[in-house]
Specification:
By secondary structure, the chain is an alpha+beta fold. The protein has helices spanning 20-28, 62-76, 93-102, 104-114, 128-138, 151-154, 159-192, 220-233; strands spanning 6-14, 39-43, 46-54, 81-83, 89-90, 117-125, 196-201, 207-216, 238-245. The chain folds into 2 domains: 6-115; 118-250, Alpha-Beta Plaits (2-Layer Sandwich), CATH 3.30.70.260.
Length: 256
């Protein structure tokens, strides 16, 4: 005989300041994972959107995760919320209400930070070898072998190895300076858009920049225009934008 222990799965945390009736109507028209009904657990102004779930359904398959994300995406289109990661479960309504009470101030601060804002992704792709060649071409006389500071190194069997490593190091420095210049240009546009950002540089050989952006609703077209301007400015790179998404990357709550 198999036993299935029900728990409560948390989808989002929200504070519905406008049109609470519309929120409840939208919620009643949505289904959670495996068709489960959605409802809210409240603590003052904050509501957690939850559904019952069996432990057996917490195994993350593609279809289950997509169902979970679809609930969040539908709610985020109209309301400010903090999306929870898949697998955020608690054992009872009282436990969720207690969690909301303990973390109330931090949840409110996070909701204020993302209020009426959406998340976008921006990746900048490059051909790393081609980029290095172009940077070498632009560098006057390329990268010369360094002068050997000591006579023993000059005559050493390690001379070629040392020179090679120094050249590689200086080429890496050229790449980093170039990446920083592109990021500075991106940041100038983001400042104009009043956007927050989290930027990783050189996360892989083909990705020069991997950024997530948080900007006010209604600025999507401005962001698209900015990405187009950057693409024209850097034709050797590829600027790819995704979104809008709920603000997954900008939820910073250490649940107590």
């Amino acid at each position: 005989m198999s036993y299935y222990f029900a728990m409560l799965l948390i989808y989002t945390l929200s504070a519905v300041k406008k049109y609470p009736e519309k929120f409840e109507t939208l919620l009643s028209g949505l289904n959670g994972i495996s068709g489960a009904s959605l409802y809210v657990v409240k603590c003052k102004e904050i509501s957690a959107v939850v559904s019952d779930i069996k432990k057996a359904d917490l195994i993350a398959s593609r279809s289950i995760v997509l169902e979970y994300a679809e609930v969040i995406d539908n709610l985020a289109k109209l309301f400010t919320l903090l999306p929870m990661r898949f697998g955020s479960v608690m054992e009872s309504i009282d436990a969720i209400a207690d969690m909301l009470e303990r973390n109330y101030c931090e949840i409110q601060l996070n909701l204020l930070k993302v209020e009426d804002k959406l998340e976008f992704g921006l990746k900048v792709f490059c051909d790393s070898e081609k980029l290095k060649e172009e940077l070498l071409t632009k560098t006057k006389d390329g990268i010369k072998s360094p002068a050997n500071p000591a006579h023993e190194i000059e005559n050493s069997v390690f001379r070629e190895y040392v020179n090679k490593k120094l050249k590689e190091h200086r080429l890496e420095e050229l790449v980093l300076v170039y990446v920083d210049s592109v990021i500075a240009e991106i940041n100038s546009y983001l400042s104009f858009l009043n956007a927050d950002s989290k930027i990783k540089k050189l996360p892989s050989a083909s990705v020069m920049i991997d950024a997530v952006l948080l900007l006010p609703k209604g600025r999507k077209n401005d962001l698209i225009q900015a990405a187009g301007d950057l693409q024209n400015q850097y034709p050797g790179l590829s600027f790819v934008m995704t979104g809008p998404w709920p603000p997954y990357s900008f939820v910073e709550i250490a649940i107590k």
